Amino acid sequence: MEDVDLAPAEQPILKISHPQCKQARTETLMEFVQLCYFVAVQYLRTPAFLSMNKQSNEEIRRLFPDEQIPETIKKQVGPLTDDDAKRRSLDSIFPFAEQIANVLVPKAWIMHKAYPKRSFYISDTPVALHNDIKDELRGTIGFAVPRIRVYMPMSATALLAAYCPILFQEVEGLEPFRMARETGEPVPSDSANMDFYNSLQVVNAERFVYCRDDEFELARRVLQNNPKARKPKRMGSNVTTDGSA
User: Fold this and answer.
1) How far apart are CA 147 and CA 131, in angstroms?
2) Distance from the CA of 115 to the CA of which of 73, 96, 122, 141 falls in 20 to 30 A?
3) Start-to-end Cα distance in the chain
4) Is 68 helix (H, G, I), strand (E, B) or coil?
């Protein structure tokens, strides 16, 4: 598996990010589950998750007067300091991560490699979810939502992706992806692919986007075309990479 740079600790991902691992589950099942868990934790250990916890608490207090809140949960929904919110967020990461990991296990896992002389961005919110299906009435972003795509850069040249298996039945032009699932080889990215993957990192970022090559022209263009992306993206929002919402 050439042209993909990973740290030594990440090398096992190359052998377990395709269905071949299913043929050797007695040896790699635990590693595969750990990979799913790792992606889930990276998704949750972000300011967006912390903010969601705080907002949920504030919404409960807004909807229910103090005297209507049962004594058994008053402590849980009481006013939160910043330290309280951080501790509560940390305490809830692992139960949520287990649920997300269970949903990730049956996905179609593929490694993408960067286009020559270009690098993958990685932001402070590295796990990006995308769905081509848009629905004004129902949200279409979620790990268990049909046709979801989950992307996480692993290095400047390697991006790990988990695809809803339905996509391989419905979408044309995925033959390279199907081959990659059989061989375990990374899928080469073209320039348009790189723009798409890197744009996802920009619109998902809380504060920072990193690039090995110090090349941020695409990031500036995304922010110019999509002013909503300048505000931190919160879980459940639908900022897109094309300037629409």
Assistant:
1) 6
2) 141
3) 38
4) helix
Model pTM score:
0.78
Do residues 44 and 188 make contact, with C-beta atoms less than 8 angstroms apart? no
User: Which residue is associated with the tokens 């049909």?
Assistant: 146
| φ, ψ for residue 96, nearest 5 deg | -65, -40
pLDDT score for 235 = 52
Q: Where are the alpha helices (DSSP H) in the chain?
A: 12-16, 25-44, 47-63, 71-74, 82-104, 167-170, 175-183, 191-204, 217-225
pLDDT-above-70 percentage for the chain: 71
Side-chain-side CA neighbours of 181 within 13 Å: the count stands at 15
Q: For residues 225 and 217, what is the distance between their CA atoms, to the nearest angstrom?
A: 12
pLDDT at 68: 66
Report d(CA 193, CA 164) in Å as an integer: 18
Helix, strand, or coil (residue 225) = helix
Largest Cα–Cα distance in the chain?
Answer: 63
